[in-house]
Specification:
alpha+beta, two-stranded antiparallel ribbon, 3 helices, 46% helix, two-stranded antiparallel sheet, elongated
Amino acid sequence: MSFLNSLNIGASGLTAQRFRMDVIAQNMSNVDTTRTENGTPYRRKQVVFQEIGPRTFKDVLGRETAKVPGGGVRVKKLFEDDAPLIPKYDPSHPDANEEGYVMMPNVDTIREMIDMMSATSSYQANINAVNAVKKMAGDALQIGR
């Protein structure tokens, strides 16, 4: 694996985790949104990651180690959580039904905070990996002096 592939892997992790943090922030900011553009309550969004690189172990064994494409991660899909919406009794709300209930988004702020802490930790781990590669490259250049 080359030096640049290592940086590309770290960069892909940084990009993916930043996207995940953006989605979590969007979920948290819409925790009280009862009407979106399509007229329905906001639904929690989730991110699915996918590995970039060889598909199977056999693919890796079939190539020379130096020719194995760089790995990393990418966002495979963004989807809406199909968990049920949360009914809240508020007959004065403009979106209340005949019984006085408003359907609130299926966003749990505690779950979102835990997801945000996880994404932040993963982001920091990728920063540490990129910094380690940069330090190794700098140390290698010092050997030649």
